[in-house]
Amino acid sequence: xxxxxxxxxxxxxxxxxxxxxxxxxxxxxxxxxxxxxxxxxxxxxxxxxxxxxxxxxxxxxxxxxxxxxxxxxxxxxxxxxxxxxxxxxxxxxxxxxxxxxxxxxxxxxxxxxxxxxxxxxxxxxxxxxxxxxxxxxxxxxxxxxxxxxxxxxxxxxxxxxxxxxxxxxxxxxxxxxxxxxxxxxxxxxxx
Length: 191
What we know:
Structural class: alpha+beta
Radius of gyration: 17 Å
Low-confidence stretches: 1-31, 52-58
Order of helices and strands: HEEEEHEHEEEEE
Strand content: over 45%
């Protein structure tokens, strides 16, 4: 499995280099996207690094809300992904891209497209780590949103920075764990 992760890293790096080399022709700003990072603490263990496995707008757009999502990080064996919901259309993203406090949504509600809002944060735990649901009171603080420029002819790129803290409860064992972190990631929107 480690070999697959290394190959995926090489593929992601190659794709980023390819996008950077195209930026002169397309006006893309993907060269600015190389300073992503995460620092996540889950139940006392801290994970740090750059989110090389980030995929921008990987999730489909929910027609009822116009939201898609950007992955911050995937930590094998711990979390399948930590994602931020955001508007896919540039006009909607611009209208609602305010810094401030947002909720940490429950994974099931997010995938069911129930009461999603711009900049909700979702932590989806790896099944082998345990089945956890978010408890009330978690906060996602978006501290910076900045337009970086055109990603290509039809898309725009934005920097998003923030931090979050929440408690999660294991539905089988009743164990409660703390999850907190900070990140810098990028979102691509459609013009």
